[in-house]
Amino acid sequence: MEFKEFFSLIRSRVDARLKIKIDSLDNDAADLKEAMTYGLMLGGKRSRPFLVYATAKALGLDFSEVDNAACAVECIHAYSLIHDDMPEMDNDELRRGLPSVHKKFGQATALLAGDALQTLAFEFLSDNKNNPCATIKMVSLLSTLAGYKGMCGGQAMDLAAEGCAVGLETMQLLHSKKTGALICASVLMAASLLDESESTTYDALHTYAKKVGVAFQIWDDVLDVIGDTSILGKKAGSDISLDKSTYPSLLGLDKARELAIETASEAVEALDAVASDTSLLREFALFCVQRDH
């Protein structure tokens, strides 16, 4: 299946399941439900669900085995963006070309919408009565990689680094948590369904995911410099205005581009240890450093 066709397929698949779940909620807190829906269904590439399904396809798994994982990781991603946009964090008024959740619904409702989407992620994951062992593995992976040891810890490090000169090693650690951890979770939740005897494949996928996470973030930093607000869907140059340490500010724009492409190539090389067809995962790594938003 072609890369773009697969992306479109999984976007429709995950969006349909997200909408069913949100629509099933009662209307006791109608404003909160509306804000959750807005934040979750605001568009976006669905890159993390793509990685869940692409990994599943490479491993010969049925998509029904990872549907809940794909929805869960998108809920976590959506919640993180809602909170990230708030004045206490990056203070972004635009998200995907539209008002961010706190601008449209107010800060209190935005905070609650993010909280509720975070818990909805684990509601998705726990809704798997047929394979409790897989459920436990996925809950453990996502809770760890979205929390202190992963995304939240990385965001805290990012805030602490504003206005400071940080070295490459610190920045790589920061972004491996802030951005890379959730990308790792996307790949590893599907890979967790592997038999324990297939540790070589699991380790190769883990290496791939870590490299892709780094490449993705470096390219995000590049786009913040060269991107167009109308295409990015958020204000270009926001990292500079917040005095954030970025790969272009540390290495220069050209070196940052080179590092992104080199890291994406390393991700592709890691897949050589996987015996099955990993073409979609390989194309995603290259897509990371070619995209315009």
Summarize the SSE layout with pairings.
Layout: H1 3-23, H2 30-40, H3 47-58, H4 67-85, E1 94-95, E2 98-99, H5 101-105, H6 107-126, H7 132-146, H8 151-160, H9 168-178, H10 180-191, H11 199-226, H12 229-232, H13 238-241, H14 247-251, H15 253-270, H16 279-288
Question: What does the model show?
Answer:
With 293 residues, the protein is mainly α. It has a single domain (3-231, 239-289), classed as Farnesyl Diphosphate Synthase (Orthogonal Bundle). It is 70% helix and 1% strand. It has helices spanning 3-23, 30-40, 47-58, 67-85, 101-105, 107-126, 132-146, 151-160, 168-178, 180-191, 199-226, 229-232, 238-241, 247-251, 253-270, 279-288; strands spanning 94-95, 98-99. Strands 1-2 form a two-stranded antiparallel sheet. The longest helix is centred in the C-terminal third of the chain and has 28 residues, at 199-226. The radius of gyration is 18 Å and the shape is globular. 45% of the residues are buried. The model has no long low-confidence stretch (mean pLDDT 92).
Task: Write out key terms for the chains shown.
globular; Farnesyl Diphosphate Synthase; 16 helices; 293 residues; mainly alpha; two-stranded antiparallel sheet
Q: What is the helix tally?
A: 16
Largest pleated sheet: 2 strands, antiparallel
Corresponding CATH architecture: Orthogonal Bundle
Number of strands: 2
Head-to-tail CA distance between termini: 23 Å
CATH superfamily: Farnesyl Diphosphate Synthase
What number of structural domains do the residues give?
A: 1
Strand content: under 5%
